[in-house]
Write a structure and sequence with these properties.
Main location: membrane
Number of helices: 7
InterPro entries: Cyt_c_assembly, Cyt_c_biogenesis_CcmC, Cyt_c_biogenesis_CcsA/CcmC
Number of strands: 0
Family: Belongs to the CcmC/CycZ/HelC family.
Keywords: Cell inner membrane, Cell membrane, Cytochrome c-type biogenesis, Membrane, Transmembrane, Transmembrane helix, Transport
Shape: globular
CATH architecture: Up-down Bundle
CATH class: Mainly Alpha
Strand content: under 5%
CATH topology: Four Helix Bundle (Hemerythrin (Met), subunit A)
Organism: Neoroseomonas soli
Order of helices and strands: HHHHHHH
């Protein structure tokens, strides 16, 4: 954990300094392009994190792995937070570029649906007195919602939207200059490391909380003379 936190802070700090201060402005968008250094990594983490949530859900439903349940439970609030940041920064970026804060096009609407899926999972796994029942129900929701991730990714290709098509993933000819691409990738790596550090820290805290509760329950049973 200390190494992960340290790497996250160093890489993210360097990436944000590079992108927000040292990189050039875009020839069309001007200084507003700097919103991209937060918006794009948040979008990637929103989709990648939900894919991870679906993998954890498969592990939970098939192998009944308790750590998968705990990690999924702690992942969903973090995923909802990065998706909210994606929507907020996208709105800030859209106002000067499109002249409006929001449009109901395919990309924006599908990301909003993704945000609601994150919130739904976070609420559902905490809605039952039986944690195992909540984990099973949340896992089913996560697997149903995974169909939205390719919709988010390919919506700009399948439908006519205001949102620009993919620029970075065109490996044969990326749609941006390296002076903008490299700091963007550095920010994406830094945010990814920070995302992983936060999720792992939350999961470790959840494991310790469960252990403490088990010890308290065992102590209470001993005091009452009930076999543990």
């Amino acid at each position: 954990m200390p190494l992960l936190w340290g790497a996250a802070l160093i890489v993210l700090g360097a990436g944000l300094l590079w992108g927000l201060v040292l990189s050039p402005a875009d020839w069309q968008q001007g200084e507003t392009v700097r919103i991209m250094y937060v918006h794009v990594p948040m979008a990637w983490l929103a989709m990648g994190g939900y894919t991870g949530l679906a993998i954890l859900s498969v592990m939970s439903l098939i192998w009944r792995h308790p750590l998968a349940d705990l990690t999924a439970r702690e992942l969903s609030p973090v995923g909802a937070a990065v998706t909210a940041l994606c929507l907020a920064t996208g709105s800030l970026w859209g106002k000067p570029m499109w002249g409006t804060w929001w449009v109901w096009d395919a990309r924006l609407t599908s990301v909003l649906v993704l945000f609601f899926l994150w919130l739904g999972h976070a609420a559902l796994v905490r809605a039952f007195d039986d944690p195992e029942r909540g984990a099973r129900t949340g896992a089913i929701l996560a697997l149903v919602g995974i169909v939205n991730v390719p919709i988010v990714k390919f919506s700009v290709d399948w439908w006519n939207t205001l949102h620009q098509p993919a620029s970075v993933t065109r490996l044969n000819a990326p749609g941006m200059h390296v002076d903008i691409l490299y700091p963007l990738l550095a920010c994406a790596l830094g945010f990814s490391l920070l995302f992983a550090a936060v999720v792992l820290a939350r999961t470790r805290a959840a494991v310790m909380e469960r252990r403490v509760r088990a010890l308290q329950l065992a102590r209470a049973r001993r005091e009452e003379g009930v076999p543990a």
